[in-house]
Amino acid sequence: MAALILVLICALALAYAARRALARDALVGWLESRGIEAEASFEALGPRGLVGRLRIGPASAPIVTAERAELSYQITGPWRGRAFGVALDQIRLINPVIHVRLTPEGPSLGALDPLIAEFRSRPSRDDAPAPEIIVRNGRLHLSHEGGVATVHADARLVQGVLVALTGRLEPTRVAVDGVVLDLGEARLGLVTRDGRTSASLAAALVSGRLGGLEVGPGDLSLAVATPYPDLAARAGNGPVIAIAVLEADSFTVAEGAARKLRLEASFRGAAAGAWDRLVLHGEGAARVISASGEMGEVKFGAVEASAQSGDLAWRRGADGGVSGDVDGSLSGRDIATGGLSLGRLNVNLAGPFRADTSGMTAQLTGSVSAVGAWSGLGAVRNDDADTLAAIKRAAQGFTLSAPDLGVVAEKDGLRVDLRRPALLTAADGGQVTVSQHRAGPLYRGRSGALSLNIAGGGLPRVEAGVSNYRLTEAGLDAQSEVSVATDFGPIRGLETKATGQLTYAKGQLAFRHQGCAPVVMGRFESGETSVEAIRLDLCPGEPLLTTSGGLWRLSGRVRDAAAKVPFLQAEVEGAGGGVALGVDQSGLFLQAEILAARLTDAAETARFHPLSFQGTAGLSRNQWRSELELESRITKVADLVLTHDGATGAGGLQIETGRLEFFEGGLQPADLSPLAEVIGPPAQGAAEFSGGFQWGPEGGGSTGRLTIHSLDFNSPAGAVQGLAGQIDFVSLAPLETAEDQQLDAQALQLLAPLTAPRVTFRLSGQSLDLSSGAVNVGGGTVRLEPMTIPLDPTQSWRGELIVEGVQLADLVRETPFSNRVDLMAKVSGRLPFIAGPDGVRFVQGRLEAIEPGRLSIRRAALTDVSASGGGAVAQTPGLGEAQAPLPQAEETNTAVEFAYQAMEHLAFDLLDAEVNSLPGGRLGVLFRVRGEHNPPQRQEIRLTLGELISRDFLKRELPLPSGTKVDLTLDTSLNLDQLLADYAESQAMRGSGEVQPPKPE
Question: Given this model, what pLDDT does residue 758 score?
Answer without folding.
Answer: 81
